[in-house]
């Protein structure tokens, strides 16, 4: 009987011992060979990189520059926390591009580097965009706004617009709507109702996407033109006043606000901020809205009050009639914003 015999156990011990020696040895050999192969590959790569550096340094520096520029451009368009240094870098780069265009004596390396920059940051002539996006600016005297309240409603029209129009009409009040229009039949019909009610329509934005619209003058014009076109199609009006999403000074437009305002003013448009914020977007109770607005209005002889007319601002609808009645009792008149009203800017 072999199994269970002394001989069997001897063989078993020898086999186990052999396995304990052979298996690690084989593994070590495999790892050693693999390691040697990798070392050889790394050496090959190093020598290839060294050769590349010596023979083609101009191309490499040019591509590095393009990469770094790409990353700056991306941060310009996507980050809300752009620093002033980014702006300075941009202007520096455009200076360099300008020189490259005029300086024929530049070396080949410089020319290659700067022309790649010019290609990746094309200079758009924003004044040539949207040739129909112009209004006639008012150049007369401002009207007397003493004791006049300007109620303004942003971000509509919405499912609550008709409720709002009902109360405004009931109190025989005209207001100003800075709209976010959409290409829907419903929105077109609401825009018509606002206009037919004798209220003023100003442009707010089509997308209300801060990062997008404030990324460049071109992007702002693109968005503005969309909103402007929808209002014109729906009402036949050509709004000549507007309000910036987030107001004219916000965290997203520090790099572009001056350029945008300059271009919009050149096209005849006037923007309005506000001096009384209802804070209705914070979900305050209607009693809080009522008290805040009335006390804040007392600080101005021409309060421009910011409300919102989105579908979730029921509190604004609940409180608007009481606010109008209280302001009337305080002796205020009600007006709509136009280019004849002295603009309120932050
Ligand atoms: Zn808004």
Ligand kinds: zinc ion
* Named CATH topology of the largest domain: TIM Barrel
> Residue share in helices?
40-55%
* SS class: alpha/beta
Instruction: Outline the low-pLDDT stretches.
Output: 51-115
Distance between the termini: 104 Å
CATH architecture tag of the largest domain? Alpha-Beta Barrel
Shape: elongated
- Structural Rg: 34 Å
Number of strands: 8
Q: Any idea how many domains?
A: 2
CATH evolutionary superfamily of the largest domain: Glycoside hydrolase/deacetylase
Count of helical regions? 11
How much of the sequence lies in strands comes to 5-15%
Task: Provide a short characterization of the protein structure.
This protein has 346 residues and is α/β, with parallel strands linked by helices. The chain has eleven helices and eight strands. It folds into two domains: 57-121; 148-335, TIM Barrel, CATH 3.20.20.
What would you say this structure looks like, in words?
The chain is an alpha/beta fold and 346 residues long. The protein folds into two domains: 57-121; 148-335, Alpha-Beta Barrel (TIM Barrel). The chain has helices at 6-55, 57-78, 84-102, 108-120, 161-170, 185-196, 210-213, 217-235, 257-266, 286-297, 314-329, and strands at 148-154, 176-179, 200-203, 241-242, 270-271, 276-277, 304-308, 333-335. The strands form two sheets. Strands 1, 2, 3, 6, 7 and 8 form a six-stranded parallel β-sheet that branches. Strand 1 (148-154), helix 5 and strand 2 (176-179) form a beta-alpha-beta unit. Helix 2 runs parallel beside helix 4 and helix 5 (161-170) packs parallel to helix 11 (314-329). The protein is elongated. The model is unreliable at 51-115 (pLDDT under 50). Bound molecules: zinc ion. Zinc ion is lined by residues 154-155, 204, 208, 245.
